[in-house]
């Protein structure tokens, strides 16, 4: 009897306690968030290094813009396909493959000896990011099925994304000044290796489920449509809306999108089953994240250029001044689950978007001789508070109520919405800013005042996008949805 008791005691001790398994998921979240940090960081960290990079590799201004575009095109274009591949082959496998590819591409970019070499590495980075980003979010949804735990996890996720956005300018300036432009790519390598080596011990293998045939015609047409759209929007900044190249790319995008819609209606196993939008959470969340992507991309671009060209801040100072915004974002991301439990998802998201819009309107009042403490600090904090709630709750809403077999699709959709929304928003807002600046210069305004007037239009346009997102959430998402979560 004693031997049996001892045997039972030993067996019990050998089994991992439920609490340790729960703790492992939070460590897994940290590792997944690190990978997301890389994706967000890489969207801005390269900007500061462009002049140095162009000088070393003999790249003119046209080719320098392709250092950004070569990353954005495959990233935005392959996101939906990447999400669906995760559903078919497993999110863990796709995530690890994406991180490994991103790490290798970053090392190759740092070693680049020519412009062609660098652009190829950047394209591979973007394609790898399109695999890892939706898979990472799908894994978060799988690891945290309980709505309360998921809200906390997405709070951390949103905080990391906010830190990555704000840290890009600062880290880009520090690394380029201290170690040269290649350091902005090499910084990804140790983080990527850490993620690849640690995640397998924290997340179980993908379940062997039913592997339906992949809708290749749908995958080809939607990828072509997204790539052509992002390329057209990127072209607008250099050639304008009526450029033959811009119009041709827009036409290709429209034709490919029409073909995709026709294919999906007839496909027995479509890449994008439109029935997913019957879920009002998914529809409202994706519309909100599309508009948030447009608002935030325009905001961070204009704010960085305004500080450096008008206020004459150096790269380091411009980066440091964004820390209060990032701090407010992290703060609200940590408390957002408690707010959701009181107000519900719908109202929390709408209020966050209206706070963001208010902060942007406030920022638009800053003059050409603004001081940080007097004109920028408080609006930045308000923007950070609104962004923190909007990112976390918007992402949660966009994947709420989705089955595990469509988790990758939902994650790919929300990431695609953010990327395409960012490209559309940036093209529209920068065009409006350019028109405003040109008009003010024609009226005799100083260059500083004319530039400031253009940036003010960007901030006001971003505020309109944020407020529109809040209104759509109130109209589309049911008032009972998310209550008590």
Automatic annotation (TrEMBL):
<feature type="transmembrane region" description="Helical">
    <location>
        <begin position="26"/>
        <end position="51"/>
    </location>
</feature>
<feature type="transmembrane region" description="Helical">
    <location>
        <begin position="185"/>
        <end position="204"/>
    </location>
</feature>
<feature type="transmembrane region" description="Helical">
    <location>
        <begin position="319"/>
        <end position="340"/>
    </location>
</feature>
<dbReference type="GO" id="GO:0005886">
    <property type="term" value="C:plasma membrane"/>
</dbReference>
<keyword id="KW-1133">Transmembrane helix</keyword>
<feature type="transmembrane region" description="Helical">
    <location>
        <begin position="376"/>
        <end position="399"/>
    </location>
</feature>
<feature type="transmembrane region" description="Helical">
    <location>
        <begin position="63"/>
        <end position="81"/>
    </location>
</feature>
<dbReference type="InterPro" id="IPR020846">
    <property type="entry name" value="MFS_dom"/>
</dbReference>
<feature type="transmembrane region" description="Helical">
    <location>
        <begin position="124"/>
        <end position="144"/>
    </location>
</feature>
<keyword id="KW-0472">Membrane</keyword>
<dbReference type="InterPro" id="IPR036259">
    <property type="entry name" value="MFS_trans_sf"/>
</dbReference>
<dbReference type="InterPro" id="IPR004638">
    <property type="entry name" value="EmrB-like"/>
</dbReference>
<keyword id="KW-1003">Cell membrane</keyword>
<protein>
    <submittedName>
        <fullName>MFS transporter</fullName>
    </submittedName>
</protein>
<feature type="transmembrane region" description="Helical">
    <location>
        <begin position="156"/>
        <end position="179"/>
    </location>
</feature>
<dbReference type="Pfam" id="PF07690">
    <property type="entry name" value="MFS_1"/>
</dbReference>
<feature type="transmembrane region" description="Helical">
    <location>
        <begin position="283"/>
        <end position="307"/>
    </location>
</feature>
<feature type="transmembrane region" description="Helical">
    <location>
        <begin position="420"/>
        <end position="437"/>
    </location>
</feature>
<dbReference type="GO" id="GO:0022857">
    <property type="term" value="F:transmembrane transporter activity"/>
</dbReference>
<feature type="domain" description="Major facilitator superfamily (MFS) profile">
    <location>
        <begin position="28"/>
        <end position="481"/>
    </location>
</feature>
<feature type="transmembrane region" description="Helical">
    <location>
        <begin position="242"/>
        <end position="263"/>
    </location>
</feature>
<dbReference type="InterPro" id="IPR011701">
    <property type="entry name" value="MFS"/>
</dbReference>
<feature type="transmembrane region" description="Helical">
    <location>
        <begin position="93"/>
        <end position="112"/>
    </location>
</feature>
<feature type="transmembrane region" description="Helical">
    <location>
        <begin position="457"/>
        <end position="477"/>
    </location>
</feature>
<keyword id="KW-0813">Transport</keyword>
<feature type="transmembrane region" description="Helical">
    <location>
        <begin position="216"/>
        <end position="236"/>
    </location>
</feature>
<feature type="transmembrane region" description="Helical">
    <location>
        <begin position="347"/>
        <end position="364"/>
    </location>
</feature>
<keyword id="KW-0812">Transmembrane</keyword>
